[in-house]
């Protein structure tokens, strides 16, 4: 077994002596247990999860779906970039959701802005779907569709071969389709990337790098 148990561990005794869990010698990716808990992964606003160490190839088509819950109006959701300009990025900026794509010819953006008093940063779950099909891009938030014209119709493939960064990214990593450096604070669940017939549900507990991210436990309400 190479990954941690997604669970809470209560009182522990070794040789009749209770182990003091409040002052550990060292600690890594261990959070407190919540009295009320939901499915999902908690991001504390300080870090990121890194998936697909060998690199994810976006190329011509990709469909990203996820659910998020936050009270913060800024935060990176997901980024896949190349060393050049090709990249995709999803982020929350000033309470709007932005989906950026650069197939090599220039960045284009689909923006979802909540109407009236509606907010995406209300601490409730919201469903997001971002679709790139060659040069076309669209964004669906809670069933509301936004798409944008792309003047670069000849450029259809985002040639990436870098990890998928979720909720933020390291300072030394280039992200060509993200404008925000703010790490996401809140909960994410059901991250699925689909290419053609291939659908992949990502388990954050199997990320190759996790900082400030606590898989499989989402506080029922933020305190």
Uncertain runs with pLDDT below 50, 5 residues or more?
none
Number of helices: 0
CATH C-level name: Mainly Beta
Helical residue percent band: under 10%
Q: Which term fits the overall shape?
A: globular
Number of strands: 17
Which sheet architecture does the biggest sheet show? Answer: 13 strands, antiparallel
| CATH fold-level name | Jelly Rolls
Organism: Eulacestoma nigropectus
InterPro entries: ConA-like_dom_sf, Laminin_G, Neurexin-related_CASP
Protein name: LAMA1 protein
Pfam family, one: Laminin_G_2
Explained architecture:
The chain has one domain: Sandwich (Jelly Rolls). The chain has no helices and 17 strands. The strands form three sheets. Strands 4, 5, 6, 7, 8, 9, 10, 11, 12, 13, 14, 15 and 16 form a 13-stranded antiparallel beta sheet that branches. A two-stranded antiparallel ribbon has the order 1-2. Strands 3-17 form a two-stranded antiparallel ribbon. Strand 1 and strand 2 form a beta hairpin. InterPro entries: ConA-like_dom_sf, Laminin_G, Neurexin-related_CASP.
């Amino acid at each position: 077994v190479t990954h941690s148990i997604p669970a809470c561990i209560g009182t522990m005794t070794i040789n009749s002596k209770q182990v003091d869990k409040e002052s550990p010698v060292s600690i890594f990716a261990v959070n407190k247990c919540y009295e009320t808990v939901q499915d999902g992964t908690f991001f504390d606003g300080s870090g990121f999860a890194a998936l697909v160490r060998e690199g994810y190839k976006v190329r011509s088509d990709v469909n990203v779906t996820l659910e998020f819950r936050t009270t913060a109006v800024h935060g990176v959701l997901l980024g896949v970039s190349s060393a050049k300009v090709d990249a995709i990025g999803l982020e929350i900026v000033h309470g709007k959701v932005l989906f950026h794509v650069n197939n090599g010819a220039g960045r284009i953006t689909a923006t979802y802005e909540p109407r009236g008093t509606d907010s995406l940063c209300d601490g409730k779950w919201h469903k997001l779907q971002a679709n790139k099909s060659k040069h076309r891009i669209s964004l669906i938030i809670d069933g509301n569709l936004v798409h944008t014209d792309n003047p670069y119709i000849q450029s259809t493939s985002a040639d990436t071969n870098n990890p998928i960064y979720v909720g933020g990214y390291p300072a030394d990593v280039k992200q060509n389709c993200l404008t925000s450096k703010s790490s996401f604070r809140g909960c994410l669940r059901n991250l699925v990337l689909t290419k053609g017939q291939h659908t992949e549900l990502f388990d954050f507990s199997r990320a190759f790098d996790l900082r400030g991210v606590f898989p499989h436990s989402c506080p029922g309400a933020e305190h």
